[in-house]
Amino acid sequence: MTETTLRLPVEKTYAAEIEALRGVDGARPPGWEMTPRAVVTYLLGGEANGTEITAKYVGDRRLIETAVATLATDRALLLLGVPGTAKSWVSEHIAAAVTGDSTMIVQCTAGTDETQVRYGWNYAQLLAKGPSREALVPTPLFRAMETGKICRLEELTRMGSDVQDTLITVLSEKMMPIPELNDAVYAARGFNIIATANDRDKGVNDLSAALKRRFNVVVLPLPSDMESEIRIVTKRVGEMAQSLDLPLPKNAAEEIARVVTIFRELRGGETLDGKTALKAPSGSLSTAEAIAVMVGGLSHASFFADGSLSAESLAPTVLGAVVKDPVQDKAVLAEYLETVLKKRRDYSDYYSEMSGMV
Length: 358
Description:
Blueprint: H1 10-13, H2 15-22, H3 36-44, E1 46-48, E2 51-53, H4 61-71, E3 76-80, H5 87-99, E4 105-107, H6 114-117, E5 119-121, H7 123-129, E6 136-138, H8 140-147, E7 150-154, H9 161-164, H10 167-173, E8 175-178, E9 183-186, E10 192-197, H11 209-212, E11 215-219, H12 226-243, H13 252-268, H14 287-304, H15 311-322, H16 328-339, H17 348-355
Parallel strand pairs: 3-10, 3-11, 4-7, 7-10
Antiparallel strand pairs: 1-2, 5-6, 8-9
Helix pairs in contact: 2-3, 3-4, 3-5, 12-13, 12-14, 13-14, 14-15, 15-17
């Protein structure tokens, strides 16, 4: 991969940090490239052999310790939470730290079938030579089992329940039957699965009781306080601005605080001081959406304004994040504008911009 690649795998982006942490002494589970304690340091930040380790996740240390400890056992890990709680981000970084490879991933959708989870066939080879290992096309899960890596299953509950249950044998027996060859692939030491899921999206398929029992569930919450959320958004916006070659204006922190305030109040159903009850919109208004709003505003400010962030550049993306249902959410936002923002002098520009759009 070259510097023209839009996004590198995290094991390449943070290669220096991972290498420093690999040198930390301590007991390692079979197949792991660093100790569980070093994995937690990689996620939460710290220092290793003179190298500063940047924080990849801002949140409860105990949750990350539980997630990492789970992967050191024979149980798979399910990261559960509402959209935008960094489930995919955490799973990617854990996989990179544990096995040095975060790319073995299955994106689960309503159209995902068994062949995309277990294995497929090269039909030219199949017709020419019949069923054979040469004709078999391994999936990321298959390759993870063979090489002792971690396979990531993104949005597990988006996949049909019958396809989900193909994982039961893999998780309980640590093997995948290949009946066409009267054979099986057995998981090498170090293999495990990290799945992510949320129960807020439409089209969710509940996990069967048999499959649930084979996962240890860790729930990733939204940031509990304003300061933590602002810190997360500021950090990620800075990183994304750098990767996209977008200048970060001096007033970025101020605008991040204002956008996060709007999101937290609408999401929580009340103003931050607790004095005014509000209707909540249909969307989640997560931290991830706040980050997307800020990056969109940065792009607009850079290419179509003087480079400074303002309500003019941010209001359209805030509106897009809030209004998912054109009828219900517009009414919710209009009420918020009239009862809350209209009375705040420091939000008068957001009120002016958005009231004309609703």
